[in-house]
Amino acid sequence: MTTVSDASTSSPVNPVLATQSNDPSFANIWQELKWRGLVHVSTDEQALEELLAGDPVTYYCGFDPTAPSLHLGNLVQILVLRRLQLAGHRPLGLVGGSTGLIGDPKETAERVLNPKERVNEWVGYLRGQIERFLSFDGDNAARMVNNLDWTAPMSALDFLREVGKYYRVGTMIKKETVAKRLNSDEGISYTEFSYQVLQGMDFLNLYREHGCILQTGGSDQWGNLTSGTDLIRKVEGVAAHAIGTPLITNADGTKFGKSEGNAIWLDPKLCSPYTFYQFWLNTSDEDVVARLKVFTFLHRDRIEELAAKVEAEPFRREAQKTLAWEVTSLVHGEDATQKVVDASAAIFGGGDLAGIDESTLASATAELPTAAPGLGAAGPVGIVDLLVATKLATSNSDARRTVGDGGASVNNIKVSDVEATFGPDQALHGRYLLVRRGKKKMAMVDLQR
Predict the structure, then answer these.
(1) What is the total count of domains within the chain?
(2) DSSP label at 230?
(3) Is 199 annotated among the ligand-binding residues?
(4) Is 258 annotated as a binding residue?
(5) Is 412 among the domain residues?
(6) Is 106 annotated as ligand-binding?
(7) Which tens digit of pLDDT belongs to each residue from 395-445?
């Protein structure tokens, strides 16, 4: 199997990196991380603050390839990597080619093991995503590493003798997720039980090879994070550190980063820029300030200004619009974000639709009502049939009245002739008809569907 090594990056440079900076109003990066709500649990706080305020240190965060894309929970960790890099420290982005073959234990059930070839493919996908958020230039240039590179050559006997002997089963079974699984009907396999040992070995290897002394991750990974710090202390006699970020939840207690049961992925093929932008735009007033702190590089004075506007003028939703622009630009680029904004204005504001590219148009109108397949199979479709087929009108007579009263439009052009017909020549991209009744009722017809 071909693995991804820690060679220099070949991914395109993200121009947004050049605009990012930490907030100079804080005494140090530790204070900024605390203010942004990014520290839920950690090793010695005072030692960490002194460490991060001093000379550059090497630190890492790991990402397992359990899917072909990272999601918003992973983005929290990536941005912590970037904030520490902006403070002068040296990041290692680890993609788990070996740990991804096993899977971090879930609280509910055993993971399904993915084929090795698929995991290796996903390693490449995740590496490319992570690289876009880090700088690979300068004295504190980032490096990418793959734990399969040092795990694969090791025999089972070497693993047990050189690493396993430092672990005590009594301590391992007290880890929160392991304890829950042991008390469940499902139980836990030795494979998943060993995950924390592998992650600890990663930290030890990175300490030896790169002088890495800090690991970051989600607070739900705390047992795995401290597995590494404990191992380094036992083997090398060195105090390594860990930071666990809080799990992000919404103000109502629901899980953050889910949209109708689906994760918000960073890959535009799995979650379009339009859907991504709308997710952030729909952030509640109760959550938007916290999201600005975690997911943007806006400084404290600007976030406090937006917080005041949430209180004084919530109907303007300036904080949500700013959040949506900042995060979508960060992940998908400013050009893609501007296309999304323009598409929303054209569709919901009645502007010119002709300039919207096909993929953005399809994403922006995906949730609109439509007609049954085959409506345009027999040739151009009349306006009356369009209104009835999309249920914007209850009957032919209702549709005719709507047209006669000036309440019907197709692709934002008012239709006044009840005999008007529409085919590919009048359709957007040769196939789409945005049918509207009044200002708010809309449907999208795909003539090729």
Answers:
(1) 3
(2) H
(3) yes
(4) yes
(5) yes
(6) no
(7) 999 999 999 999 999 999 999 999 999 999 999 999 999 999 998 899 999
